[in-house]
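Supplementary Text 2. Reproducibility record for the structural model of the 307-residue chain.

All settings were left at their defaults, and a single model was retained for analysis rather than an ensemble. We include the record here because the model underlies the residue-level annotations in Supplementary Table 4.
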Amino acid sequence: MKRKIIGLVSIIVLFAGSTFAEKSAVRIGVFTRDIDWAPYIVAKSNGWWNTVAKKHGKTVEYSEFESLPTINEAFASNRLDAVFEAEAPAIIGKAAGLDIKINGINNALIQQIIVQKSSNIQTVKDLKGKKIAVLAGSSAHQGLLQLLKKANLSPRDVEILDMSPPDAKVAFESKQVDAWAVWPVFPQQELVAGRARKLKGATYFNQTFMVMRHAFEVENPDLEKGFVQVLKKAQKWIAGNPKQAQRIVAKDLKLPLMIVEMSWHTINFSPKFGPEQLQDIQGKADFLYDNKFVKQHINVSQDLVEP
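Retained model, structure tokens:
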């Protein structure tokens, strides 16, 4: 009987310790490992996320996600507190019922579609009947759909292949796909290697954010404010130290410095976030709803953006 009691006590202690560890850790993630997340990377490299978390008796756990469903599952099961992602993933998550909020703008950038250098594809209209690699649910996916619609093409007019950037890179380089809709630094890598060229008229504007689980924010208001300040601090530091920031990002992503430098000008790390930017996000939310990619219409200002 004594052994049973001791065993039961041990289990309770272990469970309590596990629960405490989970509550004392802040889980921060990124949607794929990319240059877009330079403020996050710089703050992580300098220990700023940990410094703020430590003031509130917490530690930081970092995660990388390669697909939107895994992010949404992590949010839904309270295994993720904050993530860096673009407009479309945030809108899709909110429309799926996740209680999440945009807490800070990370950057604004230009994305594009690249095609095989030897192909005869000259415009978006020429993509009809072609194979296009893109990560489903990403900002690149939404940008592709909008460009197709503008060219009077529907998704049925092309063959869209859902691929993570590493898989799409292999497919593009082995010429299994005709085009690739993606963000920096992937186009720059293919351009430098001489395998690709930019598709004329196939660029689109995008914004990325720090998105938080709303319950985490409500439970930790001071910590949330501290993380927002860390993001702003990193953005300001990048503006004042671009070369050093490029070296930090290149090292973290294990990329040639030249590729990072080549991609840098496509991204604004000191973005504005006002009525014009909100209108742009709302337009994308409307597009996703009107074209039946999400079942719930999202009012961005009311539903998604933290006041």
